[in-house]
Amino acid sequence: MSQVEDCIKVISKSVKGFTPQVGLILGSGLGQFCEHVEVVASIEFDELPGFPVAGVGGHEGKLLLGQVSGTDIAILQGRAHYYEQGKADTMAVAIQTLNAMGCQSLVITNAAGSLNSEATPGSVMLITDHINMTGVSPLFSAESNQRFVDMSEAYSHELNDAMRSAAKANDINLHEGTYAWMSGPQFETPAEIRALETLGADAVGMSTVPEVILARHQGLSLCAISVITNYAAGMSETALSHEQTISFASQAADTVECLLIAYLKGQ
Ligand code: HPA
Fold first, then answer.
1. Does the beta carbon of 252 lie inside 6 Å of ligand 1?
2. Terminal CA-to-CA distance of the chain, rounded, Å?
3. Spans of all domains in the chain
4. CB of 115 closer than 6 angstroms to any ligand 1 atom
5. Which of 31, 51, 94, 206 could form a disulfide with 184 if both were Cys (CB 3.0 to 4.6 A apart)?
């Protein structure tokens, strides 16, 4: 039996007949969104074979099932990153399980550095496209021709529009732009940031892109939000640190919550 089938078995022991419409991956410092969930089941990642072992501060490691704004939702509270073990497919089973549970779409959130001086720390950005700077793919070991995924509209225009409407209805200034995936775990050098700027990046981070590739491989529609936690390296005097990431993500958490609650009403 596959790991995904095993996960579905574990989940159905906790809750029967629950089909989430939307999957949500919560990034660093955004865990408090879970307070808005009418929880139906909460399952630790380590009970789910193949799910990541969430190791980074600010990440919990739980699959939460429930309702937000009347929408049935499956939340990955925490994620694993490529930099943890050098495995780009570390989120494969988790995303395949969301798909197998019946999710129609996925919302991905992350913390990111801003290359755009107008997108200040504490603001939010809709990711409209990405640049994979790592040279790796979570599909390296995938076999069928399905692995040749079309990435030309990876971020759904329809879901992006829904997110824009949710922002507008709540007076949230939603920036938009291209996210560059760097492997981390070290932050970038100022020269790397200048290079990324030349390439057209608006934000930089260490997650999300492999999840987007995996989700598109599964045929899931998606949209993604970056919480801007800092100006990218070389753009400000402040030293970069994970503590700063968590602290600014928590400060922006109210905005993200408001955005997601409004977005989920329409799903
Ligand atoms: N670079 C990479 N990842 C990040 C950053 C950054 O500046 N901020 C939050 N995650």
1. no
2. 33
3. 20-139+151-265
4. no
5. 206
